[in-house]
Amino acid sequence: MRKNIFICFLFAVILFVGARVGFSDSKKKSNDQLYKQVELFSDTLAIIQKEYVKETKTKDLIYGALKGMLASLDPHSQFMDPDTYNELKVDTQGKFGGLGIEITIKDGLLTVITPIEDTPAWKAGIKANDHIVKINDELTRDMTLTDAVKKMRGLPKEPVNITVLRDNEKKLLEFKIIRDIIKIKDIKHVRILENGIGYIRLTEFRENTLQEFNNALSKLSKQGMKALILDLRNNPGGLLDVAVKVTGKFLPSNKMIAYTRGRQDKQNLEFFSDARNPILDLPLVIMINEGSASGSEIVAGALQDYKRAIIIGMKSFGKGSVQTVIPLGDGSALRMTTSHYFTPSGKIIHGKGVAPDIVVQKKEADKKPELDKPGDTEKQDQGKEFNYKDDEQIVRAVNALEVIGFYKKSGRTPLEK
User: Fold this and answer.
1) Which of 97, 203, 270, 401 fits as disulfide partner to 259, beta carbons 3.0 to 4.6 Å?
2) 294 an active-site residue?
3) Distance set, CA 29 to CA 18, 22, 162 (Å)
4) Is 180 a catalytic residue?
């Protein structure tokens, strides 16, 4: 029995890594070590099947081991059994009932990257960097990202109870959030604020974002736009190619926007600007905060490196890794981190984030008011007008562009004496 298990598992391992394992003398020691570890695994498997108090299935044990193996790499890598993998493929299509938050595991805790604007989580008062301690009274301590998403998604109009630990609070916060169909409006608040300063809020990078963004720029241009504030606060990212094209709108052709580096040559990719008519002379401010992640960090990082924009706000989240889904023969799959993103100057984004040129804290008066019942904010949000002067970060962005405008008229730059 033990011999059969060892042979089967060894064969599976060789299939998985065999193409990369050589038989040269330089690798012989490494191969011997691999075989010893595989034998250790097979010994453990045989002992469990023989001695464990209940009868076990080999498949369940192997799947459990693979889940632990991938989870030990980083919070974003995971082994997906066939059901989970099929669910992932379904999740990328159509609408779903959910809360409207992007999550990750940070420092071992289930953490909110950002609440998506105008979703149930946003209206309830969930904030970037909130640590989700419980979902429906179940502790999240050993919960995977996939399991957490499953528990928060479901039928619309059904409630989900979330317990949150917030860094600057001395108590746990309880939220009762009603699931809804998540519909995201990519572009919001397209308008001239004052003195020809345009403003665009970009909430996520999706399939139609570039067209909507071009329409917004055209609209503002017709209204006499002389400078632009692009607000990427609480933008969790989205489609990489769209983020690259948005960045390229403000750079000359064939400028590197971002690149990835992994262990394999095929994982080393470079992304360049290719806009036909880029906007090169428009003064630009990019706004970010701790809820800006992934694609929005690529935009801010590239435009900062080229000194094409002033970055204002708070340091971004720091999500800059690439996950590749690798299907396996039995319908399961690996979701594995294969590379990291870098800005054109070589700064790594993952775990570091993008630091703004001008740090502006969000004042308490500017934040969404806390209510006696954290989940009951919908009525307060209805009919609320957008007034940029209530937002200190936008006001500072306007001031920065006005200074640039002054120096531009004088024929100098702000750095010249």
Assistant:
1) 270
2) yes
3) 15, 11, 50
4) no
